[in-house]
Design goal:
- By secondary structure, the chain is an alpha/beta fold.
- It is built from nine helices and six strands.
- Strands 3-2-1-4-5-6 form a six-stranded parallel beta sheet, with helices on both faces.
- α3 runs parallel beside α5.
- The longest helix has 26 residues.
- The structure holds ligand 0WE.
């Protein structure tokens, strides 16, 4: 059977098998959803194709979220495979590395601020807008990934925290725009998960050990648990 039988999910942000998006894609595929994936650059294309093959999908489309034309082209290409679809997963973020180390007040730049908000927040609304024609009849769902740094000031997370706060606000505004079409918009504020994005972060291992100690279950969350929440 499967929770997501006859559902089609476009999943953005699977780079390798540590990606949260990969965990989500796996869980959705397990629940019998059809999957489409995107890749940011040619460098990661073959890896994403491998993931797609593993999930019985041959829909792998380039999309660098920094570019309007690539976002538009994503849905032109997707339409060649699907007339409509049900689920859009946004699991991508970026701030320049120098924004994520040291005091917010010391490392902030206009360019860093702009990039973080552009890639990590604006892209979700832009995708929602571009996906709308293919989703408006489906009564489907949009989902993005956030982090506690949206709510509390964290060491080193800096401008990413502001971008995630903006992203969370966009969940509410998108939900309020799309509710009349029966489309739901949600965010998952995942705990710290070891991924490619977190591998470059100073003291990330220390943060994982700390959050393991202070969380109620005394352990960290993993890709599959986030994936199951997403599939639900
Ligand atoms: O949202 C994130 C990280 C997203 C991210 C990661 C990178 C690393 C490489 C965005 N931009 C970049 N830019 C790069 O150049 N997380 C929730 C993981 C994360 O990142 C942190 C954290 C946590 C947790 C950065 C500083 C402090 C804590």
């Amino acid at each position: 059977m499967g929770l997501l039988k006859n559902k089609r999910a476009l999943i953005i942000g699977a780079v390798n098998n540590h990606s949260i998006a990969y965990g989500i894609a796996k869980c959705m595929h397990r629940e019998n959803a059809e999957i489409a994936l995107t890749y940011q650059t040619e460098k990661v294309k073959s890896r994403v194709e491998k993931i797609a093959a593993e999930l019985n999908s041959n829909i792998v489309i380039p999309c660098d979220l920094a570019y309007d034309d690539q976002i538009n082209n994503l849905f032109i290409e997707l339409k060649k495979h699907w007339d409509k679809f049900d689920i859009l997963i946004h699991s991508a973020a970026f701030a320049p590395a120098e924004q994520l180390e040291g005091r917010y007040i010391d490392c902030l730049t206009r360019e860093g601020f702009k990039t973080a908000h552009d890639i990590s927040s604006y892209s979700f609304s832009a995708l929602a807008q571009a996906a709308y024609p293919m989703m408006k009849e489906s009564k489907g769902a949009l989902l993005t990934l956030s982090h506690i740094g949206a709510e509390k000031a964290l060491v080193n997370y800096n401008v990413m925290g502001l971008a995630k706060a903006s992203l969370e606000a966009s969940v509410r505004y998108l939900a309020n725009s799309l509710g009349q079409d029966g489309i739901r918009v949600n965010g998952i504020s995942a705990g710290a998960v070891r991924t490619l994005a977190s591998s470059g972060i100073k003291n990330f291992r220390k943060m994982l050990t700390y959050s393991e100690k202070v969380s109620p279950l005394r352990r960290n969350v993993n890709q599959e648990e986030v994936g199951n929440a997403a599939a639900f």
